[in-house]
Amino acid sequence: MQTKRLDYLDFIKAVAICMVVFCHRVVIPDDSVAGAVCMVLVFSAVPCFMMCSGYVLLFKQESAGKSFRRAGHVYLCMVVWKALYFFFFQMFDTVEWNAVTLFRYLFLFCSLPGVDTENLWFLQAYIPALLATPLLAPMFTQRKFGMALAYTGLAYLSNQFVMSAHLLLQVGSSRLHVELFDVEMLSHVFPLGGEYSSMLVCFLLGGVYRLLEERNLPQKRSFQIAAFFGMALGLAIMMGVRYLQMGSFAWKSIPLVAKYEWSGTLLTSFCVFALLRPMGDGKLARWLGRNVGQCSMGVYYLHYLCLIPLSIYVYPLLPVSLWVNFAKTALVVAFCVLLTKAGKRIPLVRELMR
Fold first, then answer.
1. Which of 301, 290, 309 is nearest to 349 (CA)?
2. What is the distance between the alpha carbons of residues 124 and 129, in angstroms, rounded to a whole number?
3. Running along the chain, 354 residues long, what does each successive block of 10 average in pLDDT?
4. What is the separation of C-alpha 227 from the centre of its chain, rounded to a whole number of angstroms?
5. Which CA distances in Å does 100 have to 82, 90, 108?
């Protein structure tokens, strides 16, 4: 049972890491509506990773010390990879720094001009979830479904609900040229708010999904149909938000503002997770899980380092096309998987990709 569970979670991670690579350094025509829809869909990747973690970690009966050590390991990996990124970007341009800015960049979650660590924000969101796990896990290990649902709802109110209302009011104020209410400060009233609380909601939803699974709800055909229409609804909502923000459904090389803080992104992400879960039992899915999903963290760290030289030296030679972006995704994922598999043969490198 344990092997089967990890197989289907690895499949979800395989799909999620492909979506992550797809949405970085894109080659999509500005007038492509299909490209904009794809970009909205792939924003469910990071939430799916968080749900996979919550699905497992919230049901582990382990000491708080072990959870804290896991968070410490993630923090140390982040520091090492940020150092590697720092040296990597020095090869392409001069990065101005001093001891204070470098220390803040490496250890205090700050940015450094000239070093693009856009993709490493996930680690900063993951650490708070790991630190909170000892407090949250008992309600899941003891199968207190009502309490788990209440905490997840509170986390949702603390972030996606308030922020969706705030962002909609901002967009409405801009479009209608009238001054509307500012509700952003309401998020400070809720105890589970914070910069990355949107990811905590996803972490908790992974645990909630597993509790639903124990009640045999996701296995029902009606649940899968609801998940499909929920995904379609979430995509429609986010395309509507995109139109309100930019006045167009086309890609226009402009990503959504605060994409993880919209309720539509959360709905899409949960439904994508629910749709992928039963697909993970197939032979092809298990192969993808073992060969791509189990290398997902390595691909996550390495893909950006591959995309930077590609975007500088190769992209100018390529046609701007959605299909080129799909091809870029497949090639970069495959190359990073090979690098990860080779790297994992070295114990220290294996720890950095875990």
1. 301
2. 9
3. 67 97 94 95 96 95 91 95 94 88 93 89 91 94 94 84 74 68 62 75 96 92 95 94 86 84 92 95 92 95 93 93 96 97 92 87
4. 19
5. 15, 18, 11
